[in-house]
Amino acid sequence: MVEDDETTRRAMVEILEMLNYRVLEAANGQEALETFDRHGGEIALVLSDLVMPEMGGRTLFQALRQRDASVKIVVLTGHPLGEGMEGLQAQGVVDWVQKPFSLEELAEAVARAL
């Protein structure tokens, strides 16, 4: 779970843990890469915000693909993606969820991706 807003990140971690997922968290792309380097073999899916300080989502997705071409990514964003989704799919993005989203929308996106 990569999200720069701490309140949002903690809420999503709690939701995912209630759904019986084990969750690793990072506040930005750089932290996410460090976590991926330590736990890559244990990570089945990356849920990530798109717009973050230090390292944004697009840069993170490229770096993750360089480390593991099979990594699956679901984007959580408050910005409409529209045609931009095509470029993201080439970076391993398998789905996206528009913020704000419901518990059901998040659960469905995770289930589809896995």
Can you give the helix content as a percent range? 40-55%
Mean pLDDT, as a whole number?
92
CATH H-level superfamily title: Response regulator
General form: globular
The CATH architecture comes to 3-Layer(aba) Sandwich
Q: How is the biggest beta sheet arranged?
A: 3 strands, parallel
C-alpha Rg (nearest Å): 13 Å
Strand-residue proportion: 5-15%
Lateral arrangement of strands in the main beta sheet: 1-2-3
The ordered H/E elements are: HHEHEHEH
Distance between the termini: 15 Å
Stated plainly, the CATH topology is called: Rossmann fold
Low-confidence stretches: none
Using the coordinates above, name the CATH class.
Alpha Beta
Please count the helical segments: 5
Strand elements, count: 3
Number of domains: 1
What is the gist of this entry?
The protein has five helices and three strands. With 114 residues, the chain is α/β, with parallel strands linked by helices.
Task: Report on the architecture of this protein.
With 114 residues, this protein is of the alpha/beta class. It has a single domain (6-113), classed as Rossmann fold. It is built from 5 helices and 3 strands; from the N terminus they run ααβαβαβα. The relative contact order is 0.16. The mean pLDDT is 92.
